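Limitations
The C-alpha cells in this dataset are predictions for the assembled complex, not deposited experimental models. Users should treat interface geometry with appropriate caution, especially where small molecules or nucleic acid strands are included. An illustrative entry is reproduced here so readers can see what is and is not provided.
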Amino acid sequence: MFFTATTLFIGSCTHDVPVKPELPSDDIRLVVPSNFPQPVYNFSSNTLTKEGFILGRKLFYETRLSRDNTISCGSCHQQFAAFAHFEHKVSHGIDGLFGNRNSPGLFNLLWQTNFMWDGGVNHIEVQPLAPITNPVEMDESMNNVVSKLKADPLYKKMFIDAFGNDTINSQRVFKAMAQFMGMFTSSNSRYDKYMRGEPEGTMSAEELNGLNLVRQKCTPCHAEPLFTDNTYRNNGLLFDPILNDAGRMNITMLQSDSMKIKVPSLRNVGLTGLYMHDGRFNTLQQVLNHYSTGIVHNSTLDPLLATGIPLTTQEKSDIVRFLETLNDYELITDERFADPNF
Amino acid sequence: MLYLLNGMGFYLIFCKFIEEKLRTMIMKTHTKFLSVIFFAAAFAVVSCKKDPVEEPPVPEFGSIAIEFENMVGDSVLELNSDDNYAINGDTFTVTMFKYYISNIKLASANGTFTEPESYHLIDQSVPGSFTFTIDNIPVGDYTGISFMIGVDSTRNVSGVQTGALDPANGMFWSWSSGYIMAKFEGTSPQSGGSSHNLIYHTGGFSGVNSVLRTVGPSFNGAIANVTKTETPVIHIAADLAEWFVAPANIDFATTYTIHMPGTAAKMIADNYADMFSVEHIHN
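Predicted assembly:
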C-alpha cells in the first residue's frame, strides 16, 4: 500500500503538467540586438512560435481583412520600403479613398510604447484594429473578418497549428499578427555593424561626420540606438488647413498637444519616403532644409526647434550620407517577411 | 481515490523525511539546543504517527444569478419602439443600449467575494446577455453588491482581450485605444444631429478623463442566501432615463453626439452612475 501510494505520488509529481510538444521555431525567436535596450513587448503573454508567426504573415498579406477583399496590410506596408508605402504621400484604401497621413515604416515595433502618428493605439496587439475598421482603409468589422477566416479550411488548420485548436477569434488574429510584425527587427544596417565593430561596419569620413552631426543636432528626439525617443512634438511644419490634423491633441484633448506628432525613427529613412506624417516632403534634403530654415513658429512648437537647426550645405550632405547607412537591407530582403502568396 | 492515495503517500513520505532529518540534526546540533530539538522531534514523530488521515473540512460553494432589466422610467425598455419616451420635455426612441459591468463584489458577514474575470456586456439587443450566473461563491447570506460601470483601466492597456472584452463586440475605440464603457443610440425630434440622431458613447479610463464609476445599489435589507443547491437571483433595474437627468439635465438639441473621452462623456457617466437599483432578490 505504501509503495503504491508513493509511486502514484511521484508519478503525479513529475507528469501532472502535460508536456507541450516542442515546436520547430528555431528561426523564429526574439533576439534583442546587443546594441538595443530590452523591448517593451516581449511575447510574455503571447507565446512566439513558428506556426503563430506563419499565421500572422498570412493575415498580414490577407486581402479578406478588407470589406471588399482588395486591401491587405501589405498593400500599404511594402517590404522593399521597410514596410512603408513607397512614394505615396498618403495611401489609397478601399474604393480608392485617401487617408490623411503617410503610411509609416514598420520595424522595431517591440520597442514602441504607442502606435500611429498620434500615439492613439496603446498596444501592439490592438494596432491592426485601427486600419481594418477605418472607413477609408479596409472598412471591415472584426466579426466579418472572423467569419471569412472561419469559412476557409486552410485557416482552420493554421489556427490549430498555431494555437492548438480551431477556435478563430479576433484575439488570436491579433496575437498572431503581433508575432509576425513583432519580428521586424531592424538592427543590421551598416551603422549597426559599425557600432558593433563588425567587419562590414565601415563608415566613410563623410558618414561619420553625419553621425556626429545627428548626435549633436538631432538628439534627444532621434536618439540612438532606436533613433526615436517615442515622444510627440510639434516640429514646426506649416499647418495644412485641408488636412486640419490636430495630431496628438486628437487623443489627449489637450490644447498643449495641438499639432504634435510622434517622433519617427530615422532608421530606414532612405527607404521609406515620402517624408513627414503627411508625406509633404519628397527628399531628405527637403527635410533638412525644413529644419535649418523652414521652421514655422506657433504656440506648441518644440522649444528645441525655436531657432531651427542651422546646417551648412556640407553638413546636410554628410547627414544624408549618414542616414543612408541606416538602411537595413537585411530587413527588406528577409524571406521570412515576404508575401507567401508569391 | 487516486487523490487520496497520493495524499497518503505524501504524508507517509513526509513523516519518514522528518524522522530522518531530525536524527541528523540531533547528531549535529550544539548541545545547548538539544532539549528543544528533542521536544520538537517527539512532537513531530508523535503527531505524524498518531494523526489519522482525515478529510479536511470541505468549504461549500454555491452560485448567484444576476439579472439586469433595462427600463426607461417605469417602462421596460424596448428598442426601435413606435412610442417615444419622454424626458426633460423632449421625446426620444432607442436603437441601441449596451454597457459593461465589471469587477463584481458581493458582501457577506464572512467577507467579500470578488468574481474572477468579472466582465459582462449587457446588450439590449441580446436577451441572453441580461442574466449571468456567478459560480463558486462560498455559501452564506449576502447583503450587498458593488460593481464597476465600464472596464477597469488595466484591461484597457493590456492588449487584445476576448469574451465580453472582444473588440469585435464594437465596444473598443480603434483610433484611441480603450473600451467604450456604455453606448446609447437613438433619435429625437429635438436632436440637433444629422437625421435627428442621438449617439452617446462613453469612454476614457485614465486620469481626469476617466468615466469609470463603481456603484453599490442597496439590497434594501434583503438577503441573497447562497446554499449548495439554491441559486438566488438578484434582480437589478437599469434606468436609461437616468442618463439624461441629475446631476446634469441633458438637452438633446445641444448634446446629441458623444464619441470620445472628455467632459461630455464624464457628465453622462456622472448621470448614469445612479441608474441601477436592486428591485428584488429571489431566494
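Some entries come with short summary sentences. For this one: Residues 1-25 of chain A have pLDDT under 50 and may be disordered.
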